[in-house]
Amino acid sequence: MPNRKLVAVAGALALAVGLSACAESQRTPTTSAPQGTTGATAARSDSGNANADATFIFGAAGAPKLFDPFYASDGETFRVTRQIYEQLLDFLPGEAKTGPGLAESYEGSEDGLTWTFKIREGVTFHDGTDLDAAAVCANFDRWYNQTGAAQSSAVTYYWNNNFGGFADQTDKDSLFESCTADGMTATVKVTRVTSKFPDILAHGAYAIQSPTAHEKYDANNVQAQGSGFTYPAYALEHPTGTGAFTFGGYDDAAGEVTLNRNEDYWGTKAGVAKMVIRTIPDESTRRQELQAGTIHGYDLPNPVDWKALEDGGAKVEIRPAFNILYVGLNATKNEALKDVRVRQALSYAINRDQLVQSQLPEGAEAASQFFPKAVSGYNTSLQPYPHDPEKAKALLAEAGHSDLTLEFWQPTEVTRPYMPDPASIYEAIRSDWEAVGVTINPVAKPWTGGYLDGTEQGEAPAFLLGWTGDYDSADNFIGTFFTKQDNAFATKNYPFAQELTDALVAADSEPDAAKRDQMVSDLNKKIAEEYLPGLPISHSPPAIVVAAGVNGLVTSPLAAEDFSTVTITE
Amino acid sequence: MTDSPRRPMPGTPSHKKARLDALASTAAPSGSSGGSAGGGVATAVSDAGRVASGEGVSLWMSAWRRLRRDWVFLFGAAIVVLFIVLAVVAPLIAPHDPATRVLIDQVNRQTNPVPGPQPGHPLGADYQGRDVLSRLMVGARQTLLVGVLATLGGLLGGMTLGTLAGAFGGWVDSVVMRVVDVLLSIPSLLMAFSIAAMFRSPSQWTVILAIAIVQVPVFARLLRGSMLAQRHSDHVLAARALGVRKGPIVFRHMLPNAMGPVIVQATLVLATAIIDAAALSFLGLGNPDDRSPEWGQMLGNAQPYFDSHPHLAVYPALCIIVVALGFTLVGESLRESLDPKSRR
Amino acid sequence: MSRYIVRRLLQAIVTLFVLSLLLFAWLRSLPGGPVSALLGERSTPEDRAALEQALGLDQPIFIQYLRFLERAAQGQFGVSTGVLPGRDALEIFLSRFPATIELSFFALTLAILLGIPLGYLAARHRGTFLDTGSVLFSLVGIAVPVFFLAFALKYVFAIQLGVLPPSGRQSVGINATHITGMYVLDGLLTREWDAAWDALRHLILPAVALSSIPFAVILRITRASVLEVLDEDYVRTAQAKGLRAATIRGRHVLRNALIPVVTTIGLQTGALLAGAVLTERVFTFRGVGHALAYGFETRDYAVLQVLIMMAALIYILVNMVVDIAYAAIDPRVRVR
Q: Where is the Solute-binding protein family domain (chain A) (predicted)?
């Protein structure tokens, strides 16, 4: 029935790319579209007469939710707000480690409870307000004194999770104690020692915002209404920070955020006059737009297209993997999983190398532990479980579960950077397990329609899930996974539950970094070999792509790129 | 929703149009959304509905006589027969198991995401290294299954509602038709989409159910219309005069006579169902387990590869188009042959 | 007549009311919810519980519905949680609606301009190659899944030939003034010809894809209707009277044959809305269909509620207008 002739169409693609590129160069008169995609070599050399008046158009996978990062929790929002705001600390370019930001320097007291930040001189907010310690403390106080609906973790996710509570919540154990301003020195006191502080202040959620604008546009006025929250004008229309770009507006009908160069920026001014972030949810459409020359770059290109993109002259920048894909196991509903030999057997059964090679992008790696290499405390001596079906069968037999039946959950309606094609990854693991004699009951659930809450509530004996780190912190990975004993992993079912929790808490509150790393490293080994509450699978690097003629982009493992370094060569 | 004339007014020319409208309004949302056999349905229903009121067997005979010589029908029927034969024998003649990832070792996300044609695999493999030819062949069975079960489901539901409404009239009719109207007030694909999104765990069955439910009001309205038309027809009046009870009248006299339009509609709905299944897969609401392949699912899942490896989408799309066309042609020529008006 | 209209209006209100209740209950019975959508793998049971409490989602469903009605009576139809958080759902609908109207209008115009003449010609030349050809063409049009057609069009015209843009509604950098939200019209109104042309180029592919079904339906209805009219007594009489063929065609055949066609066109609105969900997705055309798909993805109750209710409302209104027009023509329709 199928017609073979039509396959020939596929071959014409390369030609098509060239064609469309040629046709494009005369099409967009108003913007600085990259001139053809032919001069790949010329474009690669950074020598260039960068056009300072250019507009940089970037294709994002999702729309920003609002523009006050303190009320945000999603990457697409932070992508925009990172350009407008800065934090006290910042990530070093291209790394997940933190360094000075709006604080020129900072240091902690001996006991790790008092931190002094020396604020950078000569910085002003976009509305002209000067940055000083008082403005910084105003931000801390604002965070800590949120009331009403804003206290919901659906609104202030990061504060809730990192700092644990607000001023009027006496029942909660808040990490933040006080902030005192003295000229250009801000002193922040915290209630306990944690590896999070002050590194977490580099996270986009803790952007330092203009207190004047807060007051003017009623920034704290979050209300619950019906089945949603309403946000103040500040968060929707008047974000005011100190960053290299100022907010130009958001056009929902067009799905475009416009940012303008901050001509009064204290550091190196942005390389382009304007940046437009267009929302294009469909991955292949983003690629088509880039090939048509109507955008200059986009996030998360499909690995399938990397080669074609590079052949067309674009630059695919592969970020270091800063995530983990794992198979979660939960023994609550499957007694057999309480036996560590069964969990080990399941791990030996998975052909990680084949999975990585056939389903994940270049640079992806089989995982030996629950966080990637770039995180401090990574145990370099650990190896991923080898693919050993015989050993898996033997272990299952030894445990008396040769006839193991396992309900295995698959998420639908989703792709994540660590999980580019869930269906194919699921199928691969399912086949591997079936090959060692395990009977799989497949259960598919929509990501936002039952998968996440089902796994959280411990309904899934085996499931695919992962995590992208917020910053270089072991606690951000394993602490989130295993500190609680009654979550998706339900470690309460295992004898080691309390031991694991105690070890995690101890490591997190160790003030000495070297000691902490050693503790974490040892713990990783134990988790991988003795505890095995889940099976680490892989780390896969998300990529970002820019057209020929776009230079200066420094990728970030956290996908927290600062686009002010980007220049466009005409 | 539309308020069709509650009682058909026989005969007059202007009524024909009012009725065409009423029935078209019943049927139009059924198919026309998202790539389905909408127009066919509209006309089919209106004309076929008229047939039911009368003539019986001789009509079928004469219809068959004309169909035998109708090349459109023969062409459509040939496609349908071929499709059904393929669906039955495919698992026996397919060169590979459609679920086995035979060429997985060749698959590489960067350099070779979709292995090309090679000896033993004339159409190559998909992104999981499974033989495409085998998947297409075996896919016929699953596709037929989805189409037939969805249509049957819609028919059963519609028959129950339509018979209740048409046979009893009165408040039963009012209540049932109000429900049908509410259902019809949502464009069909939106409804299928919404229903598919409702299930806790998507599977082949949720796809079938979603498509079937959308067809329920269509069949209900169709059957009610033809029941109403018959309530005052001679054979029903005669049976009633003879003291035959309500049940037997409905099941022995009215239902069989309504079969003409129902068969026509069912044929057209089959085509719609196959296309709608593809649309659901495209929206990510299809059957997530693709071990037993289905064309709509293959097409929906090929979405990321459309530019780089269009054949992954084009093959199942062609299969769907040809089969949907086959069913539509059969349905259309059936309708025309059953329609006394088109006998010229 | 006015009694008939009142009755129809009442029926429409009842239908909408029942629909809103069903919709409300149904949406809230969906597993998962806005928190999952908002936080992804970062959501925890505690977050979920806190949110449900903050938003009153832990209340019995009928209490929630009563509150919803209370707010709806004040003109508040809920606040978006996913599509555009913090904005009024009705406002979102209104900002997206012009795009869908524009797209549907162009698609329908295209379908009419092609469908009616072709259908008429097919009927006039019944049984010829032209007839069979155009009917077959329309049937194939119906058999092609809309989203596949959209992809294929995009592949050929935007990727291979590069003559039309692959997605969106206007190019970045076109600083157009928007009055109505329908970009082509806006361009014409403000005499920004560049903007109008740019918007038109973005419209062509999605409009063609969306028009395939209505085109086929219109062609076939026109053909059937013309055939029917050609067979009517008054046409035969006219022919017998020796009236000129052109007069017969214009005055008798076309005019009468077009009535069901017009009806059908009215009834295509529902189909267009549904097709728009698919087409707008393929072309990232930010209309109602786009918002609807995204609303499902993010489990945005308020937006879904408003969008589906508005779709139903429009559909009902169009049907009602069609029916009332009929009642005006044919008094027997009013008889119950």
A: 99-487
Q: Which residues in C lie closer than 8 A to residue A458 (C-beta atoms)? A: none
> Which residues are bridge partners to A224 per DSSP?
A229
- A369 to chain C, closest Cα gap in Å: 19
Q: What's the token pair of residue B309?
A: 């490896």
pTM more than 0.80:
yes
Minimal-distance CA residue of chain C relative to A21: C162
Neighbours of B199 (CB within 10 A): 21
Q: How many structural domains is chain C composed of? A: 2
Greatest distance between any 2 Cα atoms in chain B: 79
Domains, in order of start, for chain A: 19-283+543-568 (3.40.190.10), 323-539 (3.10.105.10)
Q: Does B197 touch chain C (CB under 8 A)?
A: yes
Query: With an 8 Å Cβ cutoff, are C78 and A227 in contact?
Result: yes
Task: Give Cα C153 distance to the centre of its chain.
Answer: 20
Assess contact for B272 and C143: CB atoms under 8 A: no
CA–CA separation, A24 and C159 (whole Å): 10
C37 pLDDT above the threshold of 90: no
ipTM of the complex: 0.84
Question: For residue C10, how many other CB atoms are within 10 A of its CB?
Answer: 10
Q: Whose CA is closest to C80, among C31, C143, C34?
A: C34
Residue of B100, B109, B321 for testing the chain A interface, max A β-carbons within 10 Å:
B109
Is 90 exceeded by the pLDDT of residue B262? no
Residue with tokens 């024909």: B16
> Which residue in C165, C181, C282 is closest to A294 by CB distance?
C165
Q: State the Cα–Cα distance between residues B220 and B154, nearest whole angstrom.
A: 9
A217-222 own/partner pairs: CB under 8 Å, 24+ apart: A219/A68, A219/A142, A220/A142, A220/A146, A220/A147, A220/A150, A222/A71, A222/A146, A222/A148, A222/A149, A222/A150, A222/A155
Supply the DSSP symbol for B304: G
| 3-state helix/strand/coil string of A8-74 | HHHHCHHHHHHHHHHHHCCCCCCCCCCCCCCCHHHHHCCCCCECCCCEEEEEECCCCCCCCHHHCCC
Q: How far apart are CA C285 and CA A110, in angstroms?
A: 58
User: What pLDDT band is residue B265 in, cutting at 50, 70 and 90?
Assistant: confident
What pLDDT score does A171 carry?
A: 80
Q: C299: domain CATH number? A: 1.10.3720.10
- Domain that includes residue C122, residue range: 89-335
Within 8 A of B32 by CB-CB distance, chain C residues are: 213-214, 217, 268, 270-271
Q: Tens of pLDDT along C240-254?
A: 777 777 777 766 777
* Judgement on whether residues C58 and C116 belong to the same structural domain of the protein: no
Q: What interhelical angle do C129-143 and B259-282 show, nearest 10? A: 50
Given CB atoms, is B20 within the 8 Å cutoff of chain C?
A: yes
Share above pLDDT 90 across residues of chain C, in percent, rounded to a whole number: 22
Q: Spell out where A72-113 has E strands.
A: 89-91, 98-100, 103-108
Kindly state whether residues C101 and C37 are assigned to the same domain: no
- A295-319 confidence digits (pLDDT tens): 999 998 988 888 889 999 999 999 9
Q: Indicate whether B19 pLDDT > 60.
A: no
Q: Determine, for residues A354 and B105 on separate chains, whether the beta-carbon distance falls below 8 Å.
A: yes
Q: How confident is the model at residue B340 (pLDDT cuts 50, 70, 90)?
A: low
Domain-ending residue, one of C10, C41, C73: C73
Residue B90 token pair? 């495919």
